[in-house]
Design a protein that fits this description.
- It is a single chain.
- The protein is 11% helix and 38% strand.
- By secondary structure, it is mainly beta.
- The protein has one domain.
- The longest helix has 14 residues, at 2-15.
């Protein structure tokens, strides 16, 4: 039960997008170009802070480290350039049966995969469409450490 709570918490936090780019996938044809913010890294802990890195768009490249718990119910992602993106509460789920086809890979042994998604309600970067959505898939270990799923990206758009 504690492990499940950590996963939901971590995903919600990530999804809260308070981290540098927690993200969103906009449905569309495979050939459609994604419009929004993408981040290639996400690290933190369930009980501490979380930060997105390797972010494109008008973000300055990463989010400011933020309290993971403050993002669970939705909140404001603060970017290093002073801009912000506001996200709604995350819906989380275990995604252990999703497709981990390349470029994605499964979470490492000893971790659990969790998915978080939600709405984007405001954005001062000019990079994320509003209204929009965000989505992220993360790996959480037994100690509550959070990393982005190998080959995945945090998307807000």
């Amino acid at each position: 039960m504690l492990k499940s709570r950590y996963h939901r918490f971590a995903v919600a936090v990530l999804a809260s997008a308070s981290l540098a780019g927690v993200f969103a996938i906009t449905a569309g044809p495979a050939s459609a170009t994604f419009v929004g913010i993408k981040c290639t890294g996400l690290t933190g802990t369930v009980s501490g802070t979380i930060q997105a890195t390797g972010c494109n768009g008008n973000t300055g490249g990463s989010s400011v480290p933020q309290s993971t718990s403050s993002l669970v119910s939705g909140g404001v992602v603060h970017w290093v350039n002073g801009k912000t993106t506001t996200i709604g509460a995350a819906t989380t789920s275990s995604t252990e049966t999703d497709s981990d086809a390349p470029p994605k890979a499964p979470c490492p042994a000893g971790t659990s995969e969790t998915s978080a998604k939600g709405s984007v309600t405001a954005d001062t970067t000019g990079s994320a469409p509003v209204p929009g959505t965000y989505k992220v898939e993360v790996c959480v270990d037994g100690s509550g450490n959070i990393t982005i799923e190998p080959g995945s990206k945090l998307k807000i758009g």
